[in-house]
Input
Amino acid sequence: MSKIKILVVEDESIVAKDIQNTLIRLGYDVPATASNAVSAFQKLEDIRPDLVFLDIKLKGDIDGIQIAEKIKNSYDIPVIFLTSFVDKATLDRAKVTEPYGYIVKPFNESDLQTTVEMALYKFEKDKETKYSKDRYENALLNLDEAIIILDISFGVTFLNPKAENLAGFGNETASGKDVFSLLKIENESGELFNKNVLVEKIKDDKVCELKNATVTFTRDLSTMKSEITFSPVRDEKDTLIGYALVLRKPGTTGASESSVISGEQMESIVIQNSFL
Output
C-alpha cells in the first residue's frame, strides 16, 4: 500500500521543514513544500497529494484561504489549516472553505498525526456518503414511480420527475404547498384520504399501503389508478421529519428499481437535501 502523500504550504521555512520531517517520521510521504501560491499550485499539479497542510495567513497577494478555495473548487483534496492566532473575520473566511482540520502553532507530533488521520478518515467518509447519495438520488430521479417527499405538516419538499409530470408542478413551484392541494386520494370504497386518516394509519411507524387507489390531480383534474405507499421519515435521532409518498401503476410493486430506494435507504438520500 502506497504512503499517504502530503504537500506542506508554509512560508516560514523552518516551520515547513519541521512539519515535513515530522510527517516523514510518522510514515507519510512529503515530497515537497511550497512557500507561496504559485509554488503551491505547481506542486499540486506535479505531485497530486492526498492531503494539503496550508498556512492560513500565507504571505503574498494570495493567502492560504484563497488557495484553499481553489483547492476546494478544482481538486478533490482535503485541506488542514496551519494557524497561530487569527481574528474572527479571518476564521469566518476560512470556515467557508470547509477545511478538514486545524493545527495551531506551536504543535507537537501527536497533534499532527491525530489531525492527519482524522482528516483522512472524514474525507473518505464524505466521499462514501456522496457516492451513495449520488447513486440513489440518480435512481430516485429515474424511477417510473412518482415520489413525493413531505415535511411534518404535509408540505411538499421534493418531487421526482415522474411526480412533477403527473402533478403539473415543478419542485420550485410545488415547494411548501400542502400535498392535498396538488392531489386527492380515494381508496377502492371511495373513502377520501386526508392528513388525519394517513397519520392514523401509520401510527407506530407502520407503512400505509393502498392497492387500488384513485388519485386525482387538481391542476387538470386528471385521474389515475395507483398503488400507494405512505411512510414516515425519521432522522438519525429517530425524530419524525416528514413523510414519503410513492405512487405507482397497479401491479408494478417490486418490479423495478423501487426496491433499491425503499425504506431506510430512501430516508437517507434525497430526504437529507429535502429537509435541510
